Amino acid sequence: MKRPTKKAFYQYMSERFNTKWKKNEGYNTLLDVIQTAVGSDESFMDLAELTLMSKSDKLIYRNAMACGGTEMTPMQVDEYLAIVEYGLEYVS
What is the mean pLDDT of the chain? Predict the structure, then answer.
């Protein structure tokens, strides 16, 4: 499995969100996503399903995360889903 570079990841996120994106935490999340997706086909499919969420599904996801103790803004949810989408490209 090829490991993504920080530079390429930051460039992808910057273009995706039209801003200078350079969050090291996001890169660590990317590596975690890749590791999780490699773990099993079920994990891969669970992550892939996240990228297909509608706006209302994202709100439900956000509320579920908050109930679990992780508060996220709508932008953070979008960033996380972009990270997941990018990370799945590195899983064979």
Answer: 94
Alpha-carbon distance of 66 to 42, in angstroms, equals 24
Ranges of each domain in the chain: 6-88
Q: What is the pTM of this model?
A: 0.91
Hey, what are 86's tokens? 């990018």
Q: Which residues contact 4 (CB under 8 A, 6 or more apart)?
A: 30, 34, 86, 87, 90
**CA–CA separation, 30 vs 82, rounded Å?**
10
Greatest Cα pair distance, the chain, in angstroms, is 35
Q: Rounded distance, CA 60 to CA 73, Å?
A: 12
Split at pLDDT 50, 70, 90, the class of 1 is low
Contacts of 26 (CB under 8 A, 6+ apart): 9, 13, 79, 83
